[in-house]
Design brief:
By secondary structure, the chain is an alpha+beta fold. It contains 16 helices and 18 strands. The protein has helices at residues 17-28, 61-72, 81-100, 121-134, 199-207, 256-265, 277-286, 292-297, 346-349, 358-381, 384-387, 408-419, 422-425, 430-450, 455-480, 520-524, and strands spanning 4-13, 33-36, 51-53, 118-120, 138-140, 145-150, 156-163, 168-179, 211-212, 219-224, 239-242, 268-271, 306-314, 321-322, 336-338, 391-392, 503-507, 513-517. Helix 3 (81-100) crosses helix 10 (358-381) and helix 14 (430-450) packs antiparallel against helix 15. It is globular and about 65 Å long. Bound molecules: flavin-adenine dinucleotide.
């Protein structure tokens, strides 16, 4: 079958909040934009299936100060106040734009004012799709990107992928590319994260970009057992119990280590009995989908105990991702921009996100900046933007170095055995991380030579390669941080080491490297 060949000024990979804000702003800046989503833009990704609290803080200096301070200690003092202030400004503007121009139906509080610090995911993404289409963006649904294209100088010059419904390969030659493919949740079945396999980070690394904060990648969300709904914030109202009915002390305030330890011994139960009537009503209003699973199971979570589990969310609610090097979210590679969970969020919350709405704010702000930056870059190329000779960059999982024969399902299961168990990835210890990394290196070597395919199979094999690359950057960085900072906790190094108050950059594919960024201490002092 023939390849679908397109050209654009800006190509956006992804279809969630970061991608749609990027596409919208690139188009508003005059760029001809193509956006390709692995799923259906408007229902795919971590936000569309859920709903998000948003870091929406009115421009009152005291409120802004408190907002910035709230995460600095938790994040291990790796955030940068200049970036936090930029994100607060941009998010305030974008959310108000949604309220006014897009008439977003924010819930109304008892005082009659709109509650703009939360967005119902399905409604949010439905409106973003409509805005993007109205701006003239061409959307390729169900069209996973499988690799980037570069010109002979190494600048990114487009992308290629596979259209599932037409069973056809496609290629888009573009002036600039925005990677907004979300984080990596290792196919753990966390709500909305089935598409989040870290593809963008693999593409970026193949183009020569690096990553930052990959040790802050072990987010685990609490979910009622047998469900995928990981809305952890509401568990602040919970009392946790052991299987024998005794209270699990130390877990309140959603402290996950005691929960993880107890889950290794047996079941853990929970009841949201600390929520008063007013909070219960507010919770239903803010996140109706949180209650769907309970309603279906016939459980009143405020009155009855229910069993819980922890589900890995990797970099979806971690802070690691592609390193960005300028205010417009450019990477180190010319023509390549990153936004949302695909990019590092250390700039605004250091080594810890969890609840608190930073990710949603980052997705809309970084998306906006990346879209504008990409449009500007494409414009600077003039007529050269689409006519460049291109080279396809995809390797692992696409063009194996040896005899084909690997099975992506076996590879994925092997990766999951190293990254999903909380006694390996949450309760981290050098004695456990070292053999896990050795096993992942081995998996990489094997998939590098034997995994590949075409069409739909290439999507699956690339997902396996992206997950393996993610896992190796994650554990190599976790081993390099010989202290406890942010969410990068080490059982063998339990305290914070002032000499390690720096970010860790990582990268490489066949050989993974990690090195400290030495400038952060000045940036936050
Ligand atoms: C249950 C849950 C609750 C959350 N609650 C909050 C909250 O309250 N506040 C908060 O700030 N954050 C929250 N988060 C995190 C938040 O959802 C994410 O930070 C946000 O969705 C990031 O947006 P994104 O556009 O970067 O990624 P996503 O929303 O994950 O979108 C990624 C998109 O990229 C597409 N894609 C992936 N790979 C490819 C490919 N190869 N080719 C083409 N397209 C691709 C996907 O189909 C998807 O459309 C929550 C996450 C979860 C899982």
């Amino acid at each position: 079958m023939e390849t679908l060949d397109l050209t654009a000024d800006v190509f956006v990979a992804g279809g969630g909040p970061a991608a749609t804000w990027a596409a919208l702003h690139a188009a508003r800046d005059g760029a001809d934009v193509v956006l390709a989503d692995k799923g259906y833009c408007g229902t795919s990704g971590a936000t569309a299936a859920a709903g998000t609290g948003v870091w929406y803080v009115p421009p009152d200096p005291a409120a802004r100060e408190a907002a910035m301070e709230s995460r600095e200690e938790l994040g291990g003092r790796l955030a940068d106040r200049r970036w936090a202030a930029r994100v607060l400004d941009e998010t305030y503007e974008r959310v108000n734009e949604l309220a006014v121009a897009a008439r977003f139906p924010f819930p109304v509080g008892p005082d009659g004012r709109q509650l703009r610090n939360g967005l119902h995911g399905p409604e949010y993404l439905r409106r973003m799709r409509a805005l993007v289409r109205r701006a003239g963006v061409r959307i390729l649904d169900h069209s996973p990107v499988t690799e980037l294209l570069a010109d002979p100088s190494g600048a990114v010059a487009g992308a290629a992928g596979y259209q599932r419904h037409g069973r056809q390969d496609y290629r888009v030659r573009a002036g600039a590319v925005v990677l907004a493919t979300g984080g990596c949740a290792f196919l753990s079945k966390a709500l909305g994260c089935d598409v989040n396999t870290g593809d963008g980070a693999l593409f970026a690394a193949e183009a020569g970009a690096d990553l930052s904060g990959m040790e802050f990648s072990n987010a685990y969300g609490i979910a009622p057992e047998g469900t995928s709904v990981t809305k952890t914030a509401f568990y602040h109202f919970a009392t946790f119990f052991r299987a024998d009915g005794s209270v699990l002390e130390g877990a309140s305030g959603v402290r996950r280590s005691p929960i993880a330890r107890e889950l290794l011994r047996g079941k853990v139960y929970c009841r949201l009995d600390r929520a008063d009537e007013q909070s219960r009503a507010a919770m239903r209003l803010a996140q109706p989908n949180f209650f769907l699973a309970f309603d279906r199971m016939g459980i009143d979570p405020f009155a009855e105990k229910f069993p819980i589990t922890l589900i890995a969310e990797g970099t979806v609610r971690g802070t690691g991702g592609i390193r960005i090097v300028s205010d417009d979210c450019a990477t180190t590679v010319p023509g390549l921009y990153a936004a949302g969970d695909a990019a590092t969020r250390e700039l605004i919350c250091g080594g810890f996100t969890g609840g608190g709405s930073h990710n949603a704010a980052w997705a809309m702000s970084s998306g906006t900046w990346a879209g504008r930056g990409a449009a500007r870059y494409a414009r600077s190329l003039g007529s050269r933007a689409h006519g460049r000779r291109t080279l396809a960059l995809g390797e692992a999982g696409l063009r194996p170095g040896g005899q084909l024969g690997g099975d992506h399902r076996e590879v994925i299961a092997a990766i999951q055995r190293e990254v999903l168990p909380y006694d390996k990835n949450y309760l981290r210890h050098g004695n456990v991380l070292t053999p896990a990394l050795a096993s992942l290196d081995d998996i990489w070597t094997r998939l590098r030579t034997s995994l590949g395919g075409t069409g739909e199979l290439s999507v699956r094999t690339r997902q396996a390669a992206a997950m393996a690359a993610h896992a190796r950057w994650m554990y190599r960085s976790a081993l390099a941080r010989t202290e406890t900072r942010g969410m990068a906790k080490r059982l063998d190094f339990r305290s914070q080491d002032p000499a390690q108050q720096h970010r860790l950059h990582t990268g490489g594919l066949d050989t993974v490297w990690v090195r400290p960024e030495r400038t952060v201490v000045e940036a936050v002092s």
